[in-house]
Design brief:
The protein is mainly alpha-helical. About 65% of the residues lie in helices and about 0% in strands. The protein is extended and about 50 Å long.
Amino acid sequence: ILEQKSPIDSKAKKPLSLYSFFFKKRHLELHAKHPMMKIQEISRLIGKEWHSISRQKVEEDYFIEFGRRPP
C-alpha cells in the first residue's frame, strides 16, 4: 500500500530571512563557545551584533550558502 503524504508535509519551506539565517549561524557559533550561556543572553548578543554589522556581508554569506539572494 502506498502512503500518501499529507499536504502539510509536502509543502515547500519558505526560504530563511536574512536575519533568521544570521541568527541561526551565530547562535550555533556562540553556543559552541559558551555552552552554559542562556538562550536569552545569546539572543541579546546576536541582536546587538545584528544592529552593528554590514548587511552586505551577511547577504554575501547567504548567497554562498544558498546560491541565491535573500528574499
